[in-house]
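INTERNAL AUDIT FORM
Audit reference: QA-55
Scope: verify that the stored structure record matches its stored sequence.
Auditor: D.O.
Record contents follow.
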Amino acid sequence: TGFLSTAAFTAVTGADYYIYVSKYSAFTAGNDFVMSVNCVDCGNVPSNDDCDGAIAQVSGVTFTGSTCCANAESMQLGWAGFGTAYGVWFTFNSSDYDTFDFDATNLTNENLGFVMMMGDGCDDVEGFVGCQFTGTCAGDVSGFTDLEPNTDYYFLIYTADPTGCGDFEFTTTGVYMGCTDATANNYDPQATMDDGSCDFAGVVAANDLCDNAIELECNSVVTGSTGGSTATGTPIGVEGCEMSPGTGVWYTFTGNGQLHNLSTCGSAIDSKINIFTADEVCGGGSYTEPPVDACAADGGVSLTAVCGGSSWESEMSWEVLDAAGAVLASGGAGTSEPFCVPADEAITVNMYDSYGDGWDAGALTLYNNINDAVFTGTVSLNTLTDCEGNPNPPVSWVGDGFCDNGDYGIYYLCAEWNWDAGDCGPESIPAGESVDPNWVAPDAGGSASTAQVTVSNYSSEPVLVAGDFTCFDSATGSDGTGTCDLFDTDDVNFEFVSEVGVLYYVYVGAEDADGNPLTDDNGAFDLTFNCADVVEGCMNPAACNYDENANVATDTCDFWSCTCEGEGVAVMMSMNDSFGDGWNGAEYFITDLAGNPVTSGSLDNAQYFVDENNFAGPEYGFDMICLAAGCYNIEVTAGSWSSEISWDLTTEDGTVLLAGGAPDSQTISVGGAVCGCTDAGACNYDETATDEDGSCEYETCAGCTDAASCSYDEAATIDDGSCCYSNCVSIQMNDSFGDGWNGGYYVLSTVDGTVIGEGGLETGSAGTDAYCLEDGCYVIDVVGATWAAEMSWTVLGAFGGLVTGVADESATFNVGSGDQCVVGCDISCACNYDPAANISDVDQCVFEGCDGCTYPDASNYDETAVSDNGTCEFDIANPCPADLNGDGSITTGDLLIFLGAFGTICE
């Protein structure tokens, strides 16, 4: 968290632990740190704390366990990142299963990790595959390795944060692969998972045609199969449903005005459903003589192209060419007008994707005049291969997807495990070749596909012509509400209220697990059809008028009327998390302006929240709060992932009072209260304010309030002591480009070098610095930096007018009355030395004509002399001045006389 390092671990009683603290890197600043250690009793160590105590799982039986008090694992596990894993162990014997599923679901841990081990026994195991998660980690072992029969496989479920440990559920289920569809020729009753091997040769589904649609009964589950189904009589191009539904089987019911839940959740196949309505049985479809083909007279066949189903249909286009290369028809997404192609001759069908990333689930289907599909094709990406030759590696798409030469391609940088879609090397590279050992071109397709097709005239025997249907609903996956669980999202569910007396037709088909529309993966499914009387009402449990019996939600939910009992203002605190795992420790706090707490909360424990993804924690939620009229502070703390957090506070009429992120702190007014400054002496005093919000400030209106001062500010209401009674001088700075002085600066000093101030123009085109200066002489030096030619300046308040200049110039100026700047000779030995000079001018100095004897005791002393020329003469009456007693010699007697007089004051 920030610059803090935290570590949590399970300690063994009686053991000594040593903590080594070091810098994170050589660039880490500082040497001081604070360390704290907290100990909490975690209880008993789990029995499966180590591999030797691994719990043997029974197929299909869920084990509920805990990671609390688990000891640290000695092996390094990459899935735990830089953290240490504290986990518990399990084992499962593969027996004679073809594969097995695992499902680890987090219940109360902060987060969990899962690792499947490989090796011969506990002494040899090492991590093989794993994940970290907050919700569920599950899968099929066959996706990672070929199962060895009668072999013990080991698993570790761990947490990297012992302080956030908790409970989990773990299930392993043995799987027998085979054909699970009882209608198939090779049905295997032992198989528990369909492997796509079902053989439907010669099998015709009983409800293959609309006329044989099976009647759905309320509150029942029907087991069906798309095996052996055809597309005969299937409506084509019905707006709102699939353009071309493909093969499938039919079910029907008559609307009775009830609420219906229709689903294929948990089916063996990847199912899809189109629901149609009709005004008559099967929309009036019947066997009729086939219509005359308009192209037959010229030896041709009439075709209609249906193109669509891609997530990016604007990128789809196609064309049909004859054997000579002439374009017979072309188009984009949608249904074309009929066009003629030669009968029994090869034609070329070209399909294009303008972006170059394939048509995903899209397809082009050509139908003849009786709605028989004579061709279906798509544009697919070639198989991706990683640097070790493994097909279909996980892909992280980066860049625009194009090479420098404009070709589409993604190229894999093996050494750094990073996709590069921006350069792809100096030129286009064929799939599988490399520029150097570090680069592989796993894919160079996805922009076009070509097929050769030969079309014959259809039989004149009677054919089943599809009736007139209207699309009611269509889906290829679950609606995300949780009706189909996480592992059944490829199945379909609907919830709707039927219209009394309307004929409904449910057409069940199989999706393309391999992405190829030519190979629908047909098989068995369970179709659940539930009915209930409609009870309309509010279905939100946080609402005042929540109706626990309601099964059809209305927009009548009232969250406001019961929030405040008596006086007060009801507000809704809406909370969002963009990742969808809750606020990760973030909270909101509402206090009055005195700091007294009013309420607090978090998305994770909101009165109402939505959690529909596979991450523990809500995506959205809200609290209803009653606030008395007044002003409040709302603070939102950061939590672990503050960038994911957003919130707003609204009233019943939808007015947004506040909105923000995290961390955040704002002030709010509720119920007509006016938040503001109530101190009449403050700059921002608000006479309408009812609640002091702590916003009073005393700076923007502060200044000199004395009119006698040269710095008097008539707008100032608070005297800040800045009045100047000497001289007000301003330095105006200008920049012609408007980006400041770019490092340039000025220095203001007295003429004797004492610095008064420094400054510069940080940004913009103009700025001013103010000074209060005593009478005197001053110097301004301006130093330029980058773009010095843009700089200019002016000194206002100097005696005698303006002083101006540009970069790298200096100026001396006078402040106050009189001439404070004296230019003269400041060399004391000069004949014309001027002690008042403060600006030196050496050129004025005169050193000749003023010399003589400068010693006043000399007989020839010259009081006008400035420089001594050594001519002084002295009259000496006593040639031996040290002979104090006058005896003609200097002896001890003279010294005693001197010492006797030493220290006396001469007057």
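Auditor finding: record pair retrieved intact. Confidence is low (pLDDT under 50) at residues 385-390, 392-444.
Action required: none
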